[in-house]
Structures are given as C-alpha cells and as structure tokens.
Design brief:
By secondary structure, this protein is mainly α. The chain is built from five helices and no strands.
C-alpha cells in the first residue's frame, strides 16, 4: 500500500469513528438537528391526536417510507454492482483497476488492494442498507400507532354556543 492508501484508510476510520463523538460534542452546545426534530415530531403527534382526519399524517408517513425504500433499493443495487466486481473473477477486477488507473493517472493498484477497497465499500453499503431497513420498519410501526390512536380531546375547547329555538 502506498502512503496515500494508508492515509485514506486512516481518514476513513477517523471519520467513521469520530462522527458519533463529534455529534456528542456538538449536542452539548445545543441546537442539534436531531434535538430540534424531536420537538417538531412531538408537536406533530400532539396535533395528530386532536385532528379529525389523519389523511395528511398518513400521506407524510407514506412519503417518508417511499423515500427510504427508494434509497434502500438504490443501496442494494450498488451492493450488487460492487459484489459483481468482487466475485466476477480476475478479469472484472483487472477491468476496474485499468479504468481507475486511466481516470486517475495513477499506477494500477494490486488486485488484493482493490479487493480490500471494494470489500470496505461493500461493508459500508451493507451497513447503510440495514439502517434503511430498520428505519422502514420503525416507520411502519409508527403508521400502525397513528392508525390505532384514538382521537384525543383538544386541550382548549370553545364553550358550546347556545341553540336558539326556531321561530315559526
């Protein structure tokens, strides 16, 4: 491996492992997107509970599920493409190595190094796919809860207006 390869691998692990730490550090200062979204979601569910028609709520959740499903299927296609190169034999690996050296102008990497790089990409894509699948599962549970939620009484209700007797 060249020094550039070692540096890229080190940067990858620093970003992978340091991302959670960086988020925790930023969370101490406040105004983190996840915390802000938590209050937005709580307000949404409070309004959903008193809303007569929940059509908008189910449409929003359906749109979110469709978006996550699209990204999951795109992720699966990328996994299939990388796995096709990995398990396609030496000819496929040499073809990818040749394209990489033609584009970057760098020397061709060894096949073992290329296999390692593609394996790392496959692991990252597989982790992302599992996260998408988990999010779709959680959203389906949320949809079931929205559908099962009884309509709550609003916290403030206007006093009933007295009815006037009809005049003849």
């Amino acid at each position: 491996m060249t020094p550039w390869d070692w540096g890229a691998l080190a940067l990858f692990f620093v970003c992978w492992l340091g991302y959670g730490l960086l988020l925790r550090l930023l969370a101490g200062k406040g105004h983190v997107l996840n915390d802000d979204m938590l209050s937005v979601r709580q307000a949404w569910m409070n309004q959903m509970a008193v809303r007569e028609l929940r059509l908008v709520d189910s449409q929003l959740m359906g749109h979110s599920i469709n978006s996550a499903s699209f990204f999951a299927s795109a992720n699966l296609l990328l996994i299939a493409a990388v796995a096709g190169v990995l398990f396609g034999g030496e000819t496929a690996l040499r073809g990818v190595a040749a394209v990489g050296s033609d584009i970057g102008g760098a020397e061709a990497a060894s096949l073992e190094l290329l296999e390692g790089k593609l394996g790392l990409i496959t692991l990252c894509l597989a982790r992302g796919l599992l996260d998408f699948i988990w999010s779709i599962r959680q959203m389906n549970y949320t949809l079931a809860l929205i559908g099962a939620r009884r309509r709550a009484r609003p916290r403030w209700t206007a006093p009933p207006t007295p009815r006037r007797p009809d005049r003849c």
